[in-house]
Amino acid sequence: MYLVELVCGDVDCAESVEQVGDLARLLAELCDCGCTLQIISVSAVEVCEIRTPLERARARRASSLPLAA
Ligand SMILES: [Zn+2]
Fold it and tell me: How far apart are CA 60 and CA 51, in angstroms?
């Protein structure tokens, strides 16, 4: 996942947008005015790890196990 900042190539429009998603798809995006968008910046976005309550309990149990001697 990428956070991409794009600006419209048309100087009269100069619309800028921020989008999150797949880089290849974002590169194919067009401005509402029909011009191609140019990338200003790209940053990778970490997808937060979502743990279910069961996974949290497992992780807690694992970390509280005494170390084998
Ligand atoms: Zn535009």
Answer: 12
Distances from the Cα of 2 to the Cα of 18, 36, 62, angstroms: 10, 19, 33
- Regions of the chain with pLDDT less than 70: 47-50, 65, 67-69
pLDDT tens digits, one per residue of 41-52: 999 887 666 677
Give the contacts of 2 (CB within 8 A, at least 6 positions apart). Answer: 20, 21, 22, 23, 26, 42, 43, 44, 45
Quickly list H helices, 1-69: 23-27, 53-64
CA of 16 to the centre of ligand 1 (A): 8
Ligand 1 centroid vs 2 CA: distance in angstroms? 21
